[in-house]
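Lab notebook, bench 4. Still working through the backlog of constructs that have no structural model yet. Next entry is a single chain of 392 residues. Request: give me the structure tokens for it.
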Amino acid sequence: MADPAPQDMTITLEALDRDPFPIYRRLRAEAPVCRVRAVGRTFLTKAADTRYVKDTPALFSSDDPNTPMKRAFHAHTLMRKDGDAHLRERMAMAPAFAPGVIRDEWVPRYRRIAEDYVGRLPRGETVDLFSALSGPYSARGLAVLLGLEDATDGEMQRWSQALIDGAGNFGWHDGPFALADRANEEMHALFDRLQDRHRAAPNSSALSVMLNSGDPIPETQIYANMKIAIGGGINEPRDALNTTLYGLLTKPDQLEEVRRNADWDMAFEEGVRWVAPIAASSRLATDDTEIRGCLIPRGDTVMTIQASANRDEELFEDGEVFNVYRDRVPHQSFGNGPHFCQGAHLARRAIGEVMLPVLFERFPEMTLPDADAVVWRGFGFRGPINLPVLLN
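Model written out:
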């Protein structure tokens, strides 16, 4: 029988939050299958292994009972389901994410929001785009998509962060769960209040299509789906935008080329490869198995580190470096397998097609005066938590 994976006693949650990439680089080289005691999971840091696990749901289930997500979301969400149960809830929202709906309804709405929010920014001043643009833009677009236009940008962002912090609360601390509890109460109250309106006037928003389905899923799961979308639908485009802007503004030669060729979509893809906004995912082993000669016992939770897979030396030359014009290799930032991100196409359009060109058209000489002033945080979810740029 294979030996258990080596255990690392030195990695801390604090170090992973501060900067996990040196840790991942070491693990890829020395122990690509490694039990990390502080997290209570077996880390998989190589691209082939993370893809294999996501593509093999019969052996690696999403239904991980040890994740804090259920506690944070007050629900057993589709993110923690497999097979028909997962597919039924995923498909309940699918009409809101149909390509034609995205093209004809959501992209024009996102464009109007982008032009409005960018138009409010002051010229000639240093502004933190995290709070002044990226967060509000992502929140407002998602509110429109979900049918929650009554919610303010501030509420959407606060709810999203509370859910993210709760779902990533691997230390099981009381504080993050208390904030998630408050967010759940407020979201449920809003969903309750909006039901009659969406039933009376059906539309393409996610809440409306789920409420008006001919074969609706239970209300508890409609609400769970909405919370999953809020939890992941703000931070992913927000952090992708901030990361891509950081990469372009610290590589002015690449920015010049991107602007000349309108390669905004390529810049977006490199941004999310370089720093995956959703950086890690959990899967439960349903039977004894092996990965790279290491025993993965039944009941063990493996963590696929897509943030590390996206920098795997076997696939990416100089993967630690932001390079829009690198050789194209598929990244794993939107996942793969049955749980591939439902909002991936919309995120690409909202950032690569809409916001980046709108922003640089208004501020063509935008600069990042002090790259060292940008602070990066996050292990399960990662991105800059500030982005002070000079708007010229």
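Notes after review: The first helix runs from residue 13 to 18. The mean pLDDT is 95. Flag for follow-up if needed.
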